[in-house]
């Protein structure tokens, strides 16, 4: 709690991993591994009934997106995701920044791609020019920021069908199956399996 107070006082955000290293250097006898820090964060969030973000902690994001989407950041230049390289646009872990984005698109589909290699191949082939779509990946198991931007996209474009391109019996698929409340926030999700 003391470390969170200090972080908030400085007006900064840290990732869970950064917090682990700060705590490891300050209090090595209390926090010997990342798992202990993560569990303590969860306990504090539950106890205070707040978000990690409100404590100055953000999760690292692995996600990326590319395609027929323009991101308008307040007081910043816009980002046209259709002219990026095959790695796409990295999704920030700062949920406040993601919530401030204005999104515009002429895409007809949103394609959620489990594997980064497949995402990069589709991006390199510029699939979104032949099939007007937005490609999004979490590079494996979906992180909070990628789930958040997916939710924003589904709310901003409620008539845009969402397709999930995943391995059969993928943990990615199980992620959605386990979280029905999240699925309710997404209008339509179609499964596309890769064998």
TrEMBL record:
It holds the Pfam family TP6A_N. Residues 109-168 form the Topoisomerase 6 subunit A/Spo11 TOPRIM domain. The keyword S-adenosyl-L-methionine does not apply. GO terms for molecular function: ATP binding; DNA binding; DNA topoisomerase type II (double strand cut, ATP-hydrolyzing) activity; metal ion binding. GO terms for cellular component: nuclear chromosome. Keywords: DNA-binding, Isomerase, Magnesium, Metal-binding, Topoisomerase. The active site is at residue 21. Its cofactor is Mg(2+). Its EC number is 5.6.2.2. One of its GO terms (biological process) is meiotic DNA double-strand break formation. Signal peptide: none annotated. It catalyses: ATP-dependent breakage, passage and rejoining of double-stranded DNA. PROSITE patterns: TOPO_IIB (PS52041). Residues 1-57 form the Spo11/DNA topoisomerase VI subunit A N-terminal domain. Belongs to the TOP6A family. This is DNA topoisomerase (ATP-hydrolyzing). It comes from Aegilops tauschii subsp. strangulata.
